[in-house]
Amino acid sequence: MALRGRLQDFTFVQILNLVNLAHKTGCLIVEKPGQKARVFFREGKLVYAIFGNEPVELARILNKARILSDNQARVVIQHGNEFSDKALGLMLINSGLVSREVILSNLQIHYLEIIRQLFTWIEGYFEFENDTLPPADRINIRLDLENIILEGSRQMREWETLKDEIPSLEMALKFTETPREKLRKINLTVEEWRVISYVNPRNTMRQIAGANRMNELEFRRIALGLLQAGLVEIVRPGKLPAEGAPRVITPVKKEEKRSLVQRLIDRIRTL
Amino acid sequence: MQTVKMVVTGPFNSGKTEFIQSVSEIDVVSTDRRISSIGERSIKEITTVAMDFGRITVDDDLVLYLFGTPGQKRFDFMWEILSEGMLGFVVMVDSTRPETFREARFILETFRAYAPTPYVVAANKQDQDEVWDSIDIRHALRLDPKVKLLPCVATSKESVKQVLLELLYSILAEMENNKN
Question: Which residue on chain B is closest to A15 by alpha carbon?
C-alpha cells in the first residue's frame, strides 16, 4: 500500500516514528527540488542511507575519518570497480588495518549525517517502498531509531516553536519605533543583515526568504532572533478566531441512555 | 418524541456527505454550494457550507439525526453549535490524502474539547488505489490504541452501518466503564 505524501504535512521525524512503530522494512525515498535521498530500514531499524544515486565509497568515509591515509584511499578508489564495499571491508579487516567495529561505527556516523540533513527538509515529497532492500554489495548497519527520533524531535520542537512565534510567512516585518538605537548595540551576522535589508511592511516574509534564497527554517530562525531582539515586529493581518469554550452536555439518566443506545444498535443492524 | 444526534466530521472532501447519504432514510438535507476557491475546486466541485442533515427513525419514540459538519475551516464556527448535545462523533479521514491528516487531528481534538463524548475514526475511500494502511493512518493521527480506527467506504451502506455500530458499542462500553 502506498505510503507517500508531502513533508509539509508529514515530517521526516514522523515518518521515522511510523517506521519504528510499525517495524517496517523497505526504502524511504525523500525528495526536494534538486535533491533526493534514500534511507533503508529493516524491521524498523536503520540499515543504510544514501544521498542522490551515487553512494559514497567506504574508502572515502574511512579516509574522512583518518583511518585510511590519502594515498591508501586513492589507491582503493582507483580500483573501485574491482571490489565492492563489502569486499573492501573484508580486505581491510583481514589485513589488520581496521576492525569490523570501526568500519561499522564510521558508516553509522556517515548515515546519521544524512539523516540529520533530512531533518532540515521541511518541504518535499516522500514515498516508502515496502520490502526494498539496499544493494547487496553495500555494508548494512542495524541502528535503533529511538535516539534518532529523539534528536529529530528536538529539532522539530524548535521548528514548532518557530512556527508558533511566526505563524505565517505571508505576514510582513516592520522596524520597531527605535530600531536604529538598538541596531548600534547589536552585532548582526551577514545573514541577519541580508534579512534586515529587506524589512519593509510591503514585503512578506516569504518574499524576503525567497530573495535571500533561504529555506523556511533558516529564515524563521533569523526572523525570530530579530523579533526577540526587539528590532522588528510582525504586522499581523486580521484577528485570530476565538477559541471555543467547552460546553456542558445535557445530562441524561444512565439507564435511559443505555436503553436508548441499545435501541439505536438494534435499529442500525436492521438497516 | 425523543431525538438524539451524532456528528460526522472531518476535513474537506473526506466523504461526510456520502457517509450520511448512505444510511439516511430521507434525502440528505444538504447545504452544498459550488466552490469558489480555485485550489479547492480542483478537488471537488461542490462542498458543504453549513451542514448535512440525515435521519434514521428508530421507533415511534426515537429518532437519530446525523449531522455532517462543513469541511472547510472557515466554517468552523459551526462546529461548536453542531457538537452541542451529541451522543458521539465520527471523524472521517480520506485515506488517499495524507496532507489532510494534520487537519483531521486538529478537528478531532477540537471536537473532543467541545464534548468529551466517545468517537471513532473512519478511514474512508478504502476502495481506491493508493490508500494508506490503517496502521499507518493510526500512527499519523497519533491515535490512542483504545480509539477505534475503522476502514470505511462511505458510499457503501454496510460499511457505514459498521462504523455507526462500532461508535454505539464504544458509547455502551464507556457507560459500563463509568459505572465501575
Answer: B140
Instruction: For the beta carbon of residue B174, count every other beta carbon within 10 angstroms.
Output: 14
Query: What is the spatial order of strands in the sheet that A125-130 belongs to?
Result: A3-6, A125-130, A26-32, A35-42, A45-51
State the pLDDT at residue A249: 36
Instruction: For B124-135, write each residue's pLDDT tens digit.
Output: 999 998 899 888
pLDDT tens digits, one per residue of A214-233: 878 889 989 998 888 888 88
Tell whether A160 is within 8 A of chain B (Cβ). no
Label residue A141 by pLDDT band (50, 70, 90): very high
Q: Residue B159: its pLDDT value, please? A: 96
- B58 vs A2, A8, A267: nearest CB: A267
Residue in A closest to B105 by C-alpha: A9
- What domains are defined for chain A? 3-156 (no CATH), 172-269 (1.10.10)
- A240/B contact by beta carbon, under 8 A: no
Of B54, B72, B73, the residue nearest B64 (C-alpha):
B54
ipTM: 0.84
Interface residue B117 vs chain A (CB under 8 A): yes
For residue A200 the three cell numbers come to 519593509
Long-range Cβ pairs for the range A112-116 (8 Å, 24+): A112/A143, A112/A148, A114/A37, A114/A39, A114/A49, A114/A50, A114/A51, A115/A39, A115/A46, A115/A49, A115/A148, A115/A152, A116/A151
Per-residue pLDDT at A241: 36
Residue A235 in contact with partner chain B when CB distance is under 8 A = no
Answer yes or no: do B114 and A241 touch at CB < 8 A: no
Residues contacting residue B171 through CB under 8 Å, at least 6 positions apart: A261, B87, B88, B117, B118
